[in-house]
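**User:**
Everyone, produce one record:

**Assistant:**
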Amino acid sequence: MDFLKKAKQTIKELEGDLNKATAQLGFGEKSQNRGQAPMAAEPASSDSTPAASNINTPSTSVAPSTAGGDAPKTKLPLALRKEVRDNFETKIPELEANLSSVLGQPWRINFDPGHLHTLADNGFAKTRPGKMCTDYCQEATRGISKYIEKYGADGKSELNTLASSHTMTLEQTTNPKISYSGCEINGGMLRLVFSGRNLGANISSVCDELDTAVNDAGVSANPSGGAALDFNAKHGIKKDYEPRIGDVQAKLQSILGLPMLELHPNFERNFAAIAAYLATAKDSPTYSREWQKRLGSSTLMYFEDLVPALERQGFATDDMLQEGYQDVADKNEIGLRIVDKLQRATFNECVFENGVMYMQTTPQYWTANIGDAGARVLDLL
């Protein structure tokens, strides 16, 4: 009997100890503050990292690893982590070396396969994210090589300057101009992008419009609001205008009997005038949508067509006409400019001002009836 009493007493003591421990751990009802309401959970620290889906640029939803911070990357299942390791991560040094070789400066690749996997719909992007990332890198490098073949050292320099961090990322975009895949430059990075749920689609064309991305980035970086020449205009001038204008200048100088002649294409002024007009114009222009690319060739045509116009009026063979021209245009300069309103004509005309002859047109009629610009020079003398 004594044994049973002792056993019961021991069990009661153990139950008491268990109740105390339970109360201390918060699993049971506490002996104090019974009338107080439960405490709310402590709010998250203001220093916590925002969710990946809330990190956005104006045109691109950025993966955490490419947003410039140290946000944790989304973790993939083991089988996919192995695929990413074998088919992408181990190849990054080689991929970066190839990209750097093409661009002539050290570049790095910063993709987040885990985050990209959450945006994948199709089988390839979903089941082989590592292989897909490698394909994007290889196709982008090929596209950059083609871009440099077309635009040369100037194009390479422009890309390296605008993508100043020398980093290539892969992200989802909200840019309505991109249907499946493409590229953008913002935040100092070259961003390979895909629209909507099109991750893994049309990878081979990811950098087909790199020149457009470079041009758009240059315009955005210009604090004067686009009045300065953009990349397309500068390239067109160098390719189409500069190699040929010397011969045209020599012909005009000879036709007018001048000891020297200076031509003023006024590229910056005319570019700004056209850009300002198109920004507010209600009707579509009569000239090419790619007028920036053709600024050099169009300007060349104005000066080229002035040659036969002056020849038809007899300047090449008549000393009197040459002397008459020289008396009025005594600065030996010919300019091309865009003005708000012409003095006499509709499309274009020539005027003499302060010893300079100007061919002039309006932004509405840029490149219209170019051959008529110098048709009535004789009538003005």
User: Anything to note?
Assistant: The two ends are 140 Å apart (CA to CA). The longest helix spans residues 129-162. DSSP finds twelve helices and nine strands in the chain. Residues 21-70 have pLDDT under 50 and may be disordered.
